[in-house]
Amino acid sequence: MFFVGPMRQHLDGHKSLSEHVQVKTVDTPSTVYIPLFTGGKDAIPCVNVGDHVYVGTKLGQKEVPFIVPVFSSVSGTVKAIEKHPHVGLKPVDHVVIENDGKYEEKAPLAPLSMDASDEALLERMKEAGIIGCGGAGFPAYVKYSAKGITDLIINAVECEPYLTADYNMLETTMDDFVAGVSLMYRLSHAQVAHVCIKESHPEMIEKLTKAFANVNGVEVHPVPDVYPMGWERVLIREVKHVEYNKLPAEVGCIVSNATTAIAFANAVLRGMPITQKMITVSGDAIDTPCNVIARVGTPFKDVIDTAGHIIGDEVMMCAGGPMMGRTQVSDQVCVVPETNGITLLKPRHDVEVACLRCGRCSDHCPSGLQPVRINTARKANDIDTLMKLEPMRCIECGLCTYVCPSKIAVTEGIRAAKRIVMLRGKK
Amino acid sequence: MKYVFNASPNYRDNVSTSRIMRDLTIGLLVVFIFGLVNQYMTYGMDNLIHSLILMIAALVTTLVTEGVWALVCKKPIGATLSHSYGWVTAIIFVLMLQSTATVYSVIVCSFLAILFGKLLFGGFGHNIFNPAAVARALVFASFASATAADVVSKATPVSTFANAGWVASSADSFNQFLTSFGGLFNFALGLYPGAIGETSFIVIALVGAVLAWRKVIDWRISLTYIVTLFVIATGLGIINGQPLTYGLYHVLTGGAIFGAVFMLTDPVTSPTSAAGRIFFAMGAAVLTLVIRVGASLPEGVLYSILLMNMVTPLIEKLFDGNQIDMKSKLVKYNAILAVCALVVMVVMSFMVTPAENVSYPTVVNLGASATNGDAIHVSAAGFSGEASPNAFDVVLDDETQTVVSVTFTTFNDTPGIGDQCNTPEFLDQFAGLGYDQIDDVEVISGATFTSNSVIDAVKQAIEGGNQ
Question: Domain range holding A403?
Answer without folding.
Answer: 360-426
